[in-house]
Amino acid sequence: MLYNQLQDAGLNENEAKIYLAVLELGETNVSRIAIKSGIKRTTVYLSLDNLKLKGLISMIKKGHKTLFFAEDPRNLERLMEEKTQRIAKLVPQLLTFTNLIDRKPEIRYFEGTEGLKEVLKDALNYPNRELCMMYSETYISDFDEKFFSDYYVPERIKRKILARSILPDNELMRKHAATNPQSLRQTKLISSELFNIKIEIMIYGSSKIGIISFEEKFALIIESPKIYESLKSIFETMWVLAK
Questions:
Q1: How many domains would you assign to the chain?
Q2: Which of 42, 145, 187, 210 lies 20 to 30 Å from 116 when distance is taken between CA atoms?
Q3: Weakest mean pLDDT among 77-81, 90-94, 101-105, 239-243
Q4: Is residue 166 in a domain?
Q5: Structure confidence by residue, pLDDT tens digits, 38-64
Q6: pLDDT digit string (tens) for 99-131?
Q7: Shared-domain flag, residues 120 and 233
């Protein structure tokens, strides 16, 4: 519903319902707003005050009547921009606290198709960085290949994430490796007799490893600088030796 989308834009449930009611009613009073929105008058007053502070509702006096009307909905864009700017200023301060914590490796567990997609999407949170991967054809046989072709790869390219992939050398993977430079991907092959991989391993960010079993429908994200550095070293060794 529309009021759910307004909540995504920063309004609470009551504010969203009341703002929509005032948009539809035009200049109106509290009684009509309460009836239209289905919210008690006392709550309507509080929400109207909040909406006035956000620049979404204005008030006028006509004789002895107090009327309310909705401001331009494009003010919501300004609210979102201000919210984004506040968060951007806050994040560096919050990160200073994380540096003070002696952190153990963090492991997150995911299940099902949507869970696997969440792990894959996590690697997209690091634009203009490199993503190192090792995987086999199981992403085709046991997963949603269209997710990669229609969403994942275009989004990776859009975010300028360079992918380096090491794949088992078989007919299907050789076809997969034949990509153009615009794909921002480099691929190398290792004999499938030696490299009999059945999962996907992603090495990304500066401390993250994603491990996905498409057939078993579960995945892990491990956040650990030591494990990251070790697996990255293994990957680079294999990269040099692969053809």
A1: 2
A2: 187
A3: 101-105
A4: yes
A5: 888 888 888 888 888 888 888 888 888
A6: 555 566 789 999 999 999 999 999 999 999 999
A7: yes
Give the pLDDT of residue 178.
Answer: 62
One-letter amino acid at 20 equals L
Gap between the Cα atoms of 82 and 88, Å rounded: 10
Range of the domain at 127: 106-241
133: which strand partners?
165, 202
CATH of the domain at 41: 1.10.10.10
